[in-house]
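Incident review: delayed structure delivery

Summary: a single-chain prediction request sat in the queue longer than the usual turnaround. Root cause was a stuck worker, restarted by the on-call engineer. No data loss occurred. The affected request and its eventual output are reproduced below so the record is complete for anyone auditing the incident later.

Affected input:
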Amino acid sequence: MGPERAAVAADGLLGQGCRALLSFGYCGALDPGLTPGRLILPERVVDAASGEVVETDPRWREALAARLGLGGAETRVRTLVGSTRVLCAEDKRSWNLRWPEAAIDMESYAVARRAREGGVPCAVLRVVLDRRDDDLPSSLTGLLDPWGRWDAPWFRRLAGVLDVAPRRLIALARARRLAFGALVETARALAPDFLAPEISG
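Output delivered after worker restart:
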């Protein structure tokens, strides 16, 4: 989880001879119309700090959309913004003014940039986890491991989070269940034989 770890992982895959990179996982909504469990296939990723844009591979994006049966609703989200931190609801609303019809994550920009530098195609397939107006408890990040999974001793710290926002945590758990289910179904739809067009010929 996070741009630094994503860049290291991408470098490792490229070093092993990978010929394409797919950024696959969760994202947050900047567009208020995005709801948990929604799949998106952005055309570009942009670094929030520098404004640098990396385009995703159009052939691979179209092939993914066709394989998954995605239409205009999903492909309408053309931009995924790269952040170095989890945003509160106020920040997401502010960023939405700059990037309408967009989503946000912390890994895809790093992966896409490494793919461009390595001369290989890159696609981004993300599932919305939190809505634009969802305010995540700051202590929640302490319950996650580097892969974004619930850390094993999370229950020892759960009481502190519940003291802050029990309803928020419950709502997030429900959203995560929806998003995780969408990720699993997507992985099943793509496995085991789906490849980037440049690889499959």
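Verification: The mean pLDDT is 84.
Action items: add queue-age alerting; document worker restart procedure.
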